[in-house]
Amino acid sequence: MLSLHSRDSSTALSRIPGKALAALSREGFSAVLSIVRCQLRPAGACVSFLDAEGRWHAIGEVPVSAPPSERLETILRSGRPVLESERAVLPLSRDASIPGLLVLTGVSPSQWTRADGELLFHSIECLVDCLRDKLYRYEVSHHQKRGEDPDIGHYRNFYENAIEGFYQTTLLGNYLRANLSLARMYGYDSVDELIYHSNFSARHLYVEEGRRDAFVEAVSRTDFLTGFESQVYRRDGAIIWISESARVIRDESGQILFFEGTVTDITKQKEAELALLASRRELEGRVASRTRQLREEMSRFDRLIGNAPGMVYQFEVSEEGKTRLTYVSDGVRDLYGLSPIEALADRSSLSDLIHPDDVLSYRTSIKQAMAGLTPWHWLGRVRAPSGESKWIHGKSRPARDESGNVIRSESGAIVWDGIVVDVTELQEMKLELQRSLQQSSTILDISPDGILTIDSHGWILGVNPAAENMLGSFEKGIVGRQLGELFTDPHGAYIDREDGNPFANVSNSPLVGRRSELTGRRADGSPFPVEMTLSPIEAGDHTVYTVNVRDISSRKRFEKRLRDSRDEAQRASLAKSEFLSRMSHELRTPLNAILGFSQLLVRAESDPVQAEKLLFIQRAGKHLLDLINEVLDLARIEAGKLCCSIEEVSLRSVIEEIGAYARPLALENRIHLDLGAEVPEDFVVFADQQRLKQILLNLVANAIKYNRQDGLVVVRCQTAGADSLEISVADTGPGMTEQQLKDLFTPFERLGADDSKSVGTGIGLALSQSLAELMGSHIHVSTEPGRGSRFSLRLPRTGKPVALPDDLCQDAGPQASRERHAPPSRKQLLYIEDNPLNLRLVREVVKESPHWELHAAETGAEGIERALALRPGMIFLDVHLPDFNGDKVLKRLRQEPSLDGTFIAMLTADAMGDGATQFRQLGADHFLTKPIDIPAILELLEEVATREAGLPG
Prior knowledge:
The chain is 42% helix and 22% strand. It is an alpha+beta fold. α16 (553-604) packs antiparallel against α17 (608-632). The longest helix is centred in the middle third of the chain and has 52 residues, at 553-604. The protein is flat. The two termini are 36 Å apart.
């Protein structure tokens, strides 16, 4: 067991030269004392060092007050620091490899933060490293003296002038020797400068954490290491790649004294390797992507071929005229009764099945096509192995590339692509078609659509009367003209690539068998849109085509009107959304002051009468806020996504609340409000109480607002049959005209817009009608110009009374005053807000908190400046500021390291968007919507103050 007075301890420290130890003690302990005084700020402090011989060395103002020696023995053995009330005892190393203890006197360890402790322990760790380093230097110098070589001068000259970096380092990484190449590689001007700085940066040379430990482990395991690659920092902070080769130098007992080796800068090599690797990965990715594309294309090709009618095939024709099938689709089974494998195995297997009467025409057509390399067409019969005869239509052509050149195989043979289709049914229909031609001609004459007959090259053979009327009278008639002269393809979707005419080769035209939209041209040259269907008809030994044409001008005009209407509706919807967003902010901002100050007054008022009046104000303001929220959800109501909560509602409570709100408004407008006698207790209906109150408030407010001076508003509740109750609101205003009554429930149509005294958005009645319909009712209106209007609403009656509270205002009692004890100092709260009312409201709220002192800034720039000067514990930040939006101010504040621990809460009056998520992503800690809830604000202030009071973990 190691003792402070043991031989091992004495020997370990005695190896260090006395002058070096004295200088280290003076410089190292002074540095530790300076850190203690600057960081921990004690009234007076002393650093004392107990060496292995039991001698004390002290620097500072407080005399040494050491624990008992047996206590010191325990601390040294455990290697753990002991923190007492006014003293800290710290062993130099946990394994006692450097024996000794540091005693800090005149400090308060219980008040240290984690950052204070980490800084102090790091300083002691550096001090211990320096002690170890000096011990290693002493050992190395003795080792080198004992092993001095006569040729050391020659070796030293090579060592110092080599291009590679040479070095000798301790186990801790501090340099003992180095050459100038290594110093310059790491960004130092001299070797001495490199060795000096290695004492402070040896642990941080390698970019990868733990890389130095890996190097030491690798070289210690085999005593020799080559090609150890790492990333390291140069002095200027730049990162380079190096390759190290090293060996271990040991003393007589086998203990490691130091490492020596070489360093090579391989930065350019690694950059080239990384670039090559990135290029290889990119190429592999492209190859893999292309491979997937080819597989997908092949799979898609197989599916398409499998769904194609008939047989798709490919064959090659050599220069000697020999043919060889290279591909046959599975359709060969239905046409010839052979499998694809059988057809490919015998090239003559298909031609041998040609009907004897059609062999000559088959061979002739093939010779002509191959001689001119032109498309091949043949119609004939084949005999299946079962003896059944079929009519087939075969087509093929030489395969060509994008430039139009014939494609050849590797052997030089010409590649042909083709398809064979079973047309037996069509041929059988041919005779039937010919028989019905006479009947068809009669149908064509009376058809309302234009019908034309053309040949395979697009020449018009005949037209029906409807087509002549549609196209007009041409000088030379319509028959004998090219169909391309009368119908064009303006978008180029069906134009043949060779001559630009969609009807140049009708048999291969994409128009065949589909309904297409083209542009027709009348005899006077005027264009018009048409819908065309082109169908082939076999007529003897050739094919003709019928063209069905329909004028779609009226349909196009109707489609345009629909598009215009849709665009107009979209523009109106965008305008409404922008209006609602602006209204959200403009209405909530004044409500913030109304509801906020009324909450403050209610909390402070001790007079029950005054508190009751304030509660009326607060209740009316909250109800107005509910109305605003519903108005801003108008789009949701129109979309049918708003639900009602139907329950039993007492009309007496509703009418009394309406009266509490409407009487001040009627008094202000010099209108007499007549609520009639007290509503009976059994007047209870099925309704949504909030929606019903919203409807009636809107009707009464309109009756007051659009009334004449000294007018009358009458509100009545009465029975309407056995199962219903009717609520009516009548006024003595100017009444409405028929046109006004027609637009009464149209959103944003304000009937009093021409009256400068009447204000509003024009959506109240539309909203009320929608809410009434959601409750299964309807607002009925009767009016007479000059005599006034009456609005009524019927709701189903429940038939039983609902218990009412004895006093609707019983919750308006004075709030008990709270005893406050202000702390000696308050935390700093900065509010960045340009609205004076909002600022004053928050100032009054903060006065109720014993923890905070409020500071204000009216612009974003001023707020940033004051935040940097105050470093407040909390910031309230308004979203809309005169110079910057709140998001820009928030980003700027979060970029300041000095404000890392500051709690930032956003305040806004805009409730339309998802602002909370956006601002939390930018670094906001909290999000509040105006009008603010004062209890919630006070709770937040208390929570943040309590959090700030705790010690950092």
